[in-house]
Amino acid sequence: MTLPLPEQDMGPAQKSGPDYSVPPVERAFRLLRHIAAGNHCRNSSQTAKEIGINRTTLIRLLATLEAERMIEALPDAGGYRLGTGVIALATQALNERGIIPTARPVLKALATKLGLSAHLAVREGREIVYLARETPMSHLASSVREGSRLPAHATTIGRILLAELTPAELRELYQGQALEAYSDKTRTTLEELQRQLETDRARGMTWSVANFEHDIGSAAVAVHDYQGRAIAAINVTGHASVFAEDSPIVGEIEAEVKAAARQISEALGYRGWSSDQM
Asked: How many CB atoms lie within 10 A of CB 30?
């Protein structure tokens, strides 16, 4: 088989010093970032044009990244998403930066105190990825596993992280994308989602009473790093009745989840809490 000639970089940056970059590696990372943003690469010609590489190179990169488990094929709709290899690398990186070992004992204490399952997750494009889970001694413990992915727009962790985006960033993220309904409470238009996020932002947390899954309630708060960036979020989940407006522990849940998020954030160097968040 005759292989194509090496591809030329498109618009190389001018550098004053030696250039030690490796174009094939740069192209692979360009593709990974493209997929991480929620683009599934179903149309190879369009994807090649969008990220500035030729179609043959794109096909080879996709095959290589899939073989290395950096991406995985979507069996039903076609295309790709980030794979378990990336999740493992990200988890290792976050472990070294301290967020998982910092968060885990806080989540454990939160789960024990409230009798609810507690989780830590990050947003990747239009999905969230769970990094840590602590459960109480209860038959109602969460079945979500570390590494699980869920849609950001329909979940409490996803919503509180989406609430950190500007309206323009939110529109760009969901441009041309359908918002799938998981219950009759799911916001399925960008305008409805934006209004919900404004309410979430004003409260400083997100709340769900069977919004995503029947009989399951949830509440989430963002975790910030020393630069003030919302790098993750934590939530607690349990039976929907516990999160209902007339539940006797609604106030306790809100206070404890906010306190736990503040504890993790402060351990990461964040000092930006306002008086109404305390």
From this structure: 14
